[in-house]
Amino acid sequence: HVQLVESGGGSAQAGGSLNISCTATETVYCMAWFRQTPGKDREGVAYIQNAGRTLYADSVKARFTISRDNAKNTLYLQLNSLKTEDTAMYYCASGDMKHRGQGTQVTVS
């Protein structure tokens, strides 16, 4: 049973940047970040395969960058040009969404 633990996040001004990371207890082929705010549906933000192929939601394309360090079983999300609408709880997950972390809050003001 893979475990995922996020770190980072916090608060930033609009236009600023944040970085969040997620460490897995074992290798996961496809990993993803998704976000959720109260009263809204979960939104897939970015996906990355083990070989590095990526996919982004239109809402974050060209602003967010997903990456991974396979040797460390660590997933990253660089959030640039932040907007207030990026405020959400961000979760690291396996690509099939069967496993996810506890989430880390990102607040943009």
What does this structure look like?
- Helix content is 0%, strand content 50%.
- With 109 residues, the protein is mainly β.
- It has a six-stranded mixed β-sheet, with no helix packed on it. Strands 1-3-8-7 form a four-stranded antiparallel β-sheet, with no helix packed on it.
- The termini are far apart.
Largest sheet: 6 strands, mixed
- Structural class based on helices, strands and sheet pairing: mainly beta
| Mean pLDDT figure | 96
Q: Which radius of gyration do the C-alpha atoms yield?
A: 13 Å
Uncertain spans, ≥5 residues at pLDDT below 50?
Answer: none
Tally of individual helices: 0
Please state how the strands of the largest beta sheet are arranged side by side: 2-10-9-4-5-6
The amount of beta strand, in percent, is: over 45%
The coarse silhouette is globular
How many angstroms separate the termini? Answer: 37 Å
Secondary-structure element pattern, one letter each = EEEEEEEEEE
Helix content: under 10%
Strands, count: 10
